[in-house]
Amino acid sequence: MTPQPRADRFPCPGCSADMQFDPATGGMKCPFCGKTQSLAAPPAAGRAAVIPSHPLDDFANQTSAPGLRPLAAAALEVSCGACGSVVTFQPPEVAGLCPFCGDALVAQPKAADPLLSPDAVLPAVITRDRAETSLRSWLRSRWFAPNALKRLARPGAVEGVYLPFWDFDADTTTHYCGRRGQTYYTHEPYPETDSEGHTVMQTRQVTNTNWRPASGVVSCRCEDVLVPASTSVPEFILKKLEPWKLESLRLYDPAYLAGFKAQRYQLDLPAGVEHATEAMRSRIAQAVCRDIGGDQQVIDSMETQYSNRQFRHLLLPVWIGAYRFRNRVYQVVVNASTGEVKGDRPYSLVKIVTPVLVVVFIFVVIPTIIGLLLLMSK
């Protein structure tokens, strides 16, 4: 195997050890001598002017495709035999445990395969210490959780990982047909039996809807439609971690990954387009309902044309802890740009049943025993 170049190693100017990205300062820091070094300041312009995007239609036609290359020149990657995730890291970082399932990464690391290069990275700003503190607070609030969950409270139980996302923009024009519902109220009589058993007539208000056909054309600009390209973290957890601070995106630089792991995208670009199109349809439907107006809306059909479709490959940061309980993997994830903590956990049957038994013993068993003793004493 041809040795990989070491261009993406970041030697410390003080002791020559490898520096790591430091979320606390946004620069590089040596884990041995503590020397720091700043990264190049990002341009002052807005995100749209800084982060490049790629024409999706040109890419589909293979007329303008972003380059294929590893995340970093010295990057290694290893596949997890338990969950199938592909984890990328840079030496001197080691494979260690899989951040997604907690199993040991025992396969031999190899030079990272080329992939569609990331266009931007959202640098982590939450340190490991802050993430672990937030995680412990989250754990304390998990009533009836099994003791196995407490292992995530140990120092070093979480790992910093950059997750892959596709980010899509598009202009849309939609021709729709539907119905506009206008609410109006009428009163109708109805019989009711009074307290003396007599039938009396009462009046009640009835809600009615007057439906009329509606049609039109709606134009929408759909921006920042994020599609997770990882299937190793449940989608419901990633949704709960939103919003991401996309205004803080930076042009991709391998330095941001030093000391962290990264995941190779599992959802390829064509599949990402399908997910994004479905998400855009939801946004378009909301715009169509606003255009229909009235009190209620029904959409019978929508025909949408997409233009100026653009995409970006993003890496977004998390701190993640994973463990197995009764042959199932549970994950707790910290958004490393906001500090938001979300996760899944099992319930301990023992911890649920024990308080119930205690209550039953105090309010049922003890009074019953006392009652029997009183009867026997008479």
Quick structural overview:
The protein has 378 residues and is an alpha+beta fold. Helix content is 21%, strand content 36%.
Secondary structure layout plus pairing:
Layout: E1 20-22, E2 27-29, E3 36-37, H1 47-50, E4 54-55, H2 56-60, E5 68-69, E6 76-79, E7 86-89, E8 110-111, E9 115-116, E10 120-121, H3 128-140, E11 159-193, E12 199-228, H4 235-240, E13 250-251, E14 261-263, H5 269-292, E15 296-325, E16 328-335, E17 341-343, H6 349-377
Parallel strand pairs: 10-15, 11-14
Antiparallel strand pairs: 1-2, 2-3, 4-15, 5-9, 6-7, 6-8, 7-14, 10-13, 11-12, 11-15, 15-16, 16-17
Runs in which pLDDT lies below 50 for 5 or more consecutive residues are 1-7, 347-354
Largest sheet: 12 strands, mixed
Q: In sequence order, what are the helices and strands, one letter per element?
A: EEEHEHEEEEEEHEEHEEHEEEH
Number of strands: 17
Helix coverage percent of residues? 10-25%
Overall domain count: 1
Structural class: alpha+beta
What is the alpha-carbon Rg in Å? 29 Å
* Backbone shape: flat
| Cα separation of the termini | 94 Å
> What is the tally of helical segments?
6
DSSP strand (E) fraction?
A: 35-45%
